[in-house]
Amino acid sequence: MSTANSTLSGASQPLKGILLVVLATFLFASHDALSKYLSGFYPVIMVVWARYLVHTVLMAGIFLPQSGLRVLRSKRPGLQVLRALCLLGTSLLFTTGLLFIPLAEATAVNFLTPLLVTALSLPLLGESVSRGQWIAVLAGFVGVLIIVHPGGELFTPAVLLPFGSALCFSFYQLLTRKLSEIDSATTSNFFAGLFNTLAMSALVPFFWQLPNLSHGVLMLALGGCGMCAHLFLTQAFRHAPPALLAPFGYGQIVFAGLLGFVVFSHTPGTLALLGILVICLSGLAAAWQNRGA
After folding, report:
1. What is the maximum span of the chain, computed from C-alpha positions, in angstroms?
2. Were 211 and a residue from 41, 180, 216, 272 both cysteine, which residue would form a disulfide, CB within 3.0 to 4.6 Å?
């Protein structure tokens, strides 16, 4: 996360930061629930396109009047393209996974990202990883194995989709960390949104289905949830340090479970709940050990 520098002015309002993170996690979970619902009616390509289109239009309305086209000027456009593709891979794999995997379980598997970032930071960034952090990484994978235990209904190749999403998002976060030293967060986020909108716009004509009015409104809400969630998350780090806010990010799994029950009538089984708990605890342990970084 590239927002660590933004805590300089706002660490005196931790409660506001926590509330913003909780709101962001609810919006992220709502975004995923909308993606799962809409994917039952429309191709995944079209759902992801709508998400990026609305997101980019909203960002353009906010930032272009302030900064003009210079907001897109990057010192490392090649890395920005690679970062955008990683984010696009995350969206496509996770949304496709929601066709086969319940919302809470898929979200939990996707929360392997902080652990994968820890594991990949050694070979890719040359950062040191402690024994305790490696234990947390291994524990996270044990949590996934508990969720998709042999003989269980989730023990299918489809579970590789949210895992692939987590892997793509890990590379996305590592590239975000790298680019935070080069370009502004606004440039990186707007570049990724615009690039992915253009990429998906080239594909969507082959998958186009005219949405009805209610589904069109939900597609607008899909992009709005994603955009607002990112804005709230960015603002949260202006008011409190990452180490304090990290545990509350796991509230997204709780919201995903609630929305999965309300919208899709799905309740995670006992082993799934145990696996989710193990993933959450391992992620929190890794965040705690990394709090001084």
Report:
1. 55
2. 216
